[in-house]
Amino acid sequence: MNNFKYIYGLTIFALMISFVPFLNSHDLQKAVASDSRTPANVARDSSRHPMETLSFFRIKSDMTIVELSPGGGWYTEILANFLHEPGKLIAAHFDPNSERAYYKRSRANFEKKMSSNSMYDNVEMVAINSNLAEPNSVDAVLTFRNLHNWLGSDMDLIFSNSYKALKTGGLFGVVEHRAKPGTSMEAMKKSGYVSEEHAIEIAKKHGFELVDKSEINANPKDSTDHSGGVWTLPPNLRLKDEDREKYLEIGESDRMTLLFIKS
């Protein structure tokens, strides 16, 4: 009997240990601190505040989430670790059939990243210009520093498709380089900064209701007036060694953080 109890106890302990990584992955703080993240990405946490930002967006581990234009996967590394069954991450990247070489190359690099770790097995890939997901099937849609690339008809299409994909009560989280109020469309396209007024206007145009704003990603040091646009600042440092220390001291851009809902 004592041997049976000993073996039974060892079995239960082994099962508990085997579930530790699974349990950890449902903790947002541990997903942010995960060793699976790229060190260069971790180095930007102090500027991008992923823990605070995703908490503000009310993200839960069992949600189905669309990440719009994930780029190299900065936020994907965190979301893929955090979301597990029944949750799912849908990465809406460039169209693999695009005629633009940069789009194809970027998509291919992202696909390579997705095949590099079993953590990404629950990531579905779609094209950013697609319907994104089945209508009324998604809990949240997130976008980080992308609006300036979509100004015009692309932004209308993506916001519209995001609204259609979301369930009623679904969340739409936006982080974007913030232009000064009244900035013209031409200036926004040139600088890479977008005004809050414009972002909110387009979101409301497609049915979204603004429910909250946050200054989590604000940077009062950023004047938003740089010769090379927002790309003058880290991490791009477009001007290279010219005034490098100045721009490193400013840090990453001043950003709006907006939360909308599909009511």
In short:
The protein is an alpha/beta fold and 263 residues long. The chain has one domain (28-262): Rossmann fold. It has helices spanning 2-18, 20-24, 28-32, 39-42, 45-48, 50-56, 76-82, 101-114, 147-150, 153-165, 185-191, 196-205, 244-250, and strands at residues 64-68, 88-93, 123-127, 138-144, 166-179, 194-195, 208-214, 255-262.
Describe what this molecule looks like in 3D.
The chain has 263 residues and is an alpha/beta fold. The chain has one domain (28-262): Rossmann fold, CATH 3.40.50. Helix content is 40%, strand content 21%. The chain has 13 helices and eight strands. The protein has helices spanning 2-18, 20-24, 28-32, 39-42, 45-48, 50-56, 76-82, 101-114, 147-150, 153-165, 185-191, 196-205, 244-250; strands at residues 64-68, 88-93, 123-127, 138-144, 166-179, 194-195, 208-214, 255-262. Strands 1, 2, 3, 4, 5, 6, 7 and 8 form an eight-stranded mixed sheet that branches. Strand 5, helix 11 and strand 6 form a beta-alpha-beta unit. The longest helix has 17 residues, at 2-18. It is globular and about 50 Å long. The relative contact order is 0.12.
The CATH homologous superfamily is called Vaccinia Virus protein VP39
CATH topology: Rossmann fold
User: In percent, how much strand structure appears in the residues?
Assistant: 15-25%
Structural class call reads alpha/beta
Architecture per CATH nomenclature, i.e. the level-2 architecture: 3-Layer(aba) Sandwich
As a percent range, the share of helical residues equals: 25-40%
Oligomer: single chain
**Helix and strand succession?**
HHHHHHEHEHEEHHEHEHEHE
Query: What does the largest sheet look like?
Result: 8 strands, mixed
**Overall number of strands:** 8
End-to-end Cα distance: 61 Å
**Overall CATH class:** Alpha Beta
Task: Calculate the mean pLDDT score and round it.
Answer: 92
Count of alpha/pi helices:
13
Q: Return Rg in Å.
A: 20 Å
- How many domains? 1
The 3D shape can be described as globular
- Regions with little confidence, pLDDT below 50 for 5+ residues: 10-25
